[in-house]
Amino acid sequence: MSENISKIINELHIYEKKVLKSLGENENYSPEEIAKINSMDIKSVMSAAGSLASKDIIEVEKSVTESIALNDNGKKYTEIGLPERRVLNVLVDEKEIDMKNLAKSTGIENYEIKIVIGWLLRKNWAKMDKGTITITEFGEEFEDKKGNDEKLLEILLKNENSDQNSQILSSDLDEDLYSGLKQLNERKNLIKIEKETTHTFKLLEKGIKILKEGFTIQEEATQLTSEQIKTGEWKNLKYRPYDIDAEYPEIFPGKGHPLRRIIEEIREIFLNLGFSESNGSILESAFWNFDSLFQPQDHAAREMQDTFYVKNPQDCHLPGDDLVNAVAEAHETGGDTGSEGWNYKWDKYVAKQSVLRTHTTGISTRCLEENQPPLKMFSVGRVFRRETSTYKHLPEFHQVEAIVAAEGINYQNLLGILKGFYKKLKFEVRFRPAYFPYTYLSTECEVYLEEKESWIELGGSGMFRPEVLAPLGINVPVLAFGLGIERLTMIRYDISDIRMLYKSDIKWLRELPIDNGIKLD
Ligand SMILES: N[C@@H](Cc1ccccc1)C(=O)O
């Protein structure tokens, strides 16, 4: 047994020992007193006591006391009498009062009328019939007798006015006064009740045994001083062990939205490859969005159900006549590109229409018009399509667009750049032949979605056609691509629904890892 006790003692925390020792000196010490004696804070005392209690060394008893006092309003009513008492006083003489005259004949305030009638009836001091209040026999008895509530009010007032203003506790009240308290409690704003929780500690058998066995309290060092190190005193100190199982608060450091983060990563990749960054505007003319890309004016993608047309401004300015005419010619006859064009009458009013850009490829043609090759340009931007939202579709998403325009650039370079780009992002993609009106050859990049057991498209690419380049005055090959960004984010963060990226799901955002374990090479 004793061995058992010394094992328990060995495992006691210094705070537990201090609390126990104080209780050994005086079992009636309150937690506050124990805290003071040992220069501990009350929290540490309570947690040490809790720990002692969990080991059946002491018992912690909790009791709640309610102290009752009058508030200002209560004081006033105790002095002038509760409103129903003031009415009863009149009723004792008058026997009955017309409701209409109630305030006037009894001196109560108008706002008190409802309260008065309620309590007169509840206390059975009066009856009400057709607008007349009549005193009851029971009420007559109360002419010289106080109700329990009134008795309590008087006691409270007396206590307040006396010199040794002691506390009146609900537990001190006899049955009558306690029922008075209950009544008063129902009327808001007469008394205030302050609840106080007190804890008392009691030594249990095990605690007594431990005290009998005795123990020493050696202060634990929490901080070393240079003095202690110099003198070698540190060797004799007792150190508080680290509790590596201690609970810790979860921390959610601030971080960028995953979409934002991937965009930054993509920008960094292209900037590192020596691409310059360009920007366009969300509101674009059909001319740049479609026509400059040799997209015929009856092309399905230009239909209202695919593209958001803008009402205000309904039209955009077209660029200079030379370019507009050259584009018109490319569409109508192919110009001198060796192509036949689309063989229809090109309409400049259709080209003027304002649209929300459906891709960022219009930035590339603008850029080719404004700059001389050689050129390496990229841009990141939002694009809009009239699509129904699904797990992989959004009507609004981001693309990264890029072109390389230089002598000798070819389709192999295009595939090489795409492969390199996705590799940097740690994606494995496959290429498929594709069709775009503005490129030849054309390729689509796809990635496999494990969960949906299907390939999803990440973006399109190709070599710009001569019908696109000639009107822009470009006579070197140009590789181009436009890749969706949301889908990359979706796969990287293992989200099965792309819409998640646009929800304010704080829990999900909070718990996302900061770098997702993926770093740039
Ligand atoms: N603009 C195409 C992608 C693309 C860009 C450049 C060349 C070829 C294709 C899209 O939005 O899907």
Automatic annotation (TrEMBL):
GO terms for cellular component: cytoplasm. One of its GO terms (biological process) is phenylalanyl-tRNA aminoacylation. It comes from Candidatus Methanobinarius endosymbioticus. Transmembrane segments: none annotated. It comes from the Archaea. Binds 2 magnesium ions per tetramer. Tetramer of two alpha and two beta subunits. Residues 260-513 form the Aminoacyl-transfer RNA synthetases class-II family profile domain. Its EC number is 6.1.1.20. Its main location: cytoplasm. InterPro entries: aa-tRNA-synth_II, aa-tRNA-synth_II/BPL/LPL, Phe-tRNA-synth_IIc_asu, Phe_tRNA_ligase_alpha_bac/arc, Phenylalanyl-tRNA_Synthase. Keywords: Aminoacyl-tRNA synthetase, ATP-binding, Cytoplasm, Ligase, Magnesium, Metal-binding, Nucleotide-binding, Protein biosynthesis. It is found in: Cytoplasm. PROSITE patterns: AA_TRNA_LIGASE_II. The keyword Nucleotide-binding applies. GO terms for molecular function: ATP binding; magnesium ion binding; phenylalanine-tRNA ligase activity; tRNA binding. Its cofactor is Mg(2+). L-phenylalanine binds at T361, Q399, V400, E401, Y438, F464. The gene is pheS. It catalyses: tRNA(Phe) + L-phenylalanine + ATP = L-phenylalanyl-tRNA(Phe) + AMP + diphosphate + H(+). Belongs to the class-II aminoacyl-tRNA synthetase family. Phe-tRNA synthetase alpha subunit type 2 subfamily. This is Phenylalanine--tRNA ligase alpha subunit.
